[in-house]
Amino acid sequence: MNSNLNSDEILHAIHKQVVDWRAWAGRVLVMAFAALAGLTVVAFTWMTELAFGAFEHVQQLYWWSPLLWTPLCTGAIVWVTRRYAMGSAGSGIPQVMAALDPSVAPSNRNLYVSLKLTVAKMALSTWGLLAGLSLGREGPSVQIAAGVMHHARRWLPDKSQVSEHGLMMAGGAAGIAAAFNTPLGGVMFAIEELSRKPEQRSSGLLLAAIVLSGLMAVSIYGNSTYFGVIRVENLGMALLLPGLLVAVLSGLAGGLFARVFLVSMRGQSADRFSRWRLRSPVAFAAACGLAVAVIGLVSHGHTFGTGYAHSRAMLEGNNETQPLYVLLKFMATWITAWAGVPGGIFAPALSIGGALGNDIALLISYPNAPTLIALGMAGFLAAVTQAPLTAFIIVMEMVDGHGLVLSLMATAMVASGVSRLLCVPLYSALAQLQLQRLPKVAAPSPGDRA
């Protein structure tokens, strides 16, 4: 009798997974939206590259133009953001984490993730790079892709095994996978940063969706790494002390960046700048834009934008290193974020970390500078995000430096540990700030309680 019962259960499970049209409709729909999310991130990447290219062209023709253009655009971006798309401000990763929080009712998730915010994020982040601000597109890509995937819930058949939570998590991870061309990094990002509860029945489908989104970038840009190939030569015990130095210093610098960043975004300081930001956010943003422009001109234009070109040039040995680049890029990125514009910090963090590794290589005359540059990238990103596995996998996939796997992992873990001594996990804290935007529930009046 038990045998017949087990047979019936097996046949029912097979019918449900293989024959039931609703299951197949849900799978096809999820994969279609995953492809669409990947293509949307690819389109966003193209938009940002075109915008920053236009900024560089004008800046080369008129060196003084950022002093007018950058503050004007920064103030206008913040005005538009606060008036029409408040949910698009900042990175985008905290918004997705807030939307995944169990305390957020389904009716309130559009405060953080929606097609409207996807469009706004694409337009405003692109405008930020057109202004020459020091921001990245990877954090925004998380919110952009999550908004596309979240929209799929409207079309899923009833009793679908794919939850709204799973769609948003897959979308956020797909944004990282497509932005960096690192599918494995996207999967790890979902596990380490976004996942709050298991999606047991649909995990395979969601992982396939993340990979498919990453493949959209591969199909258009080719299977090339983000920064090229790192040449690892004579890797051995000689790397131990330089690697440890990079890990500790990147951990301290990244922890300091995260702490300053968080204090600024909370706006709880009593200093005059924080009071000015609360009182006149648009004017404050314009002043931040002017500061970023001045820093950019002092650095001969190197601190404008994501920092990708500077990092790649360092890895290829074609860059004249400026000793103050780490400090200047640090300041430009922090001030850009403090202004309140939509934009991420992943790419600038990689640029700062890479420059820090390069400075250490020059200081100690280490013969293979690209190795320490890669370690600095992984270390600083891990310290800022306190997501060491994601940081090390992203850098490993981007630079194709597979001989550095263990070194990258160790650096990311040490840097993240050092950072925790200085600051709480950044994105979790920023997600808590996002949750403060939820509508306040009115307390019941004495008459209601009676």
Descriptive notes:
The protein has 20 helices and no strands. The model is unreliable at 198-202 (pLDDT under 50). Helix 5 runs antiparallel to helix 6. The radius of gyration is 23 Å and the shape is globular. It is mainly α and 450 residues long. Helices cover 71% and strands 0% of the residues. It has helices at residues 2-19, 21-61, 66-84, 93-99, 115-130, 138-151, 164-180, 183-194, 203-221, 240-266, 272-279, 281-298, 308-316, 325-339, 346-364, 369-385, 388-399, 405-420, 426-435, 446-449. The longest helix is centred in the N-terminal third of the chain and has 41 residues, at 21-61.
Topology:
Elements: H1 2-19, H2 21-61, H3 66-84, H4 93-99, H5 115-130, H6 138-151, H7 164-180, H8 183-194, H9 203-221, H10 240-266, H11 272-279, H12 281-298, H13 308-316, H14 325-339, H15 346-364, H16 369-385, H17 388-399, H18 405-420, H19 426-435, H20 446-449
Number of helix segments? 20
Helix fraction, binned, reads over 70%
Question: What is the gyration radius calculated from CA atoms?
Answer: 23 Å
Shape descriptor reads globular
> Strand fraction band?
under 5%
Secondary structure category: mainly alpha
Q: What's the order of the H and E elements?
A: HHHHHHHHHHHHHHHHHHHH
Total strands: 0
Flag low-confidence runs.
Answer: 198-202
**What's the N-to-C terminus distance?**
58 Å
The major β-sheet equals: none
Mean pLDDT: 83
